[in-house]
Specification:
Layout lengths: L8 E7 L6 H18 L3 E9 L8 E8 L2 H9 L1 H12 L8 E5 L8
Antiparallel strand pairs: 1-3, 1-4, 2-3
Helix pairs in contact: 1-3
Length: about 110
């Protein structure tokens, strides 16, 4: 594996909002994305995707995040915006299922 990947930390989070709560979750994640872009230089990318081909009927969101290193991820996790968003997720009971978070490292692929 190329050394360019050595310290990078990538996170894939799957969120399943309760029915009717998708727009609220997207709103909160949009606000978080703005804060991350403005305040976290160690975040290389932060993209939210909607899973549009689900047989189950659940509306899932997939958040793909790329950090310079684990320290940048840890910093992100401690940010007040991040903590506030998760507090709202709990208080407003927005999630149908627990958020699934996976830490991944590239094995093979490319970027054009």
């Amino acid at each position: 594996m190329a050394s360019a990947y050595k310290d990078e930390c990538e996170i894939v989070a799957t969120l399943t909002p309760k029915p009717g709560k998708l727009d609220r979750v997207v709103e909160l994640l949009t606000n978080l994305t703005t804060a991350v872009k403005a305040n976290e230089p160690g975040v290389f990318s932060f993209h939210l995707y909607k899973d549009f081909d689900r047989e189950s009927g659940d509306e899932e969101l997939v958040l793909v995040e790329k950090y310079a290193d684990k320290e940048a991820y840890d910093y992100h996790s401690e940010r007040p915006e991040f903590k506030a968003m998760h507090k709202i997720f709990r208080e407003e009971e927005l999630m149908q299922k627990p958020i699934v978070i996976k830490s991944v490292k590239p094995v093979v692929g490319f970027v054009r």
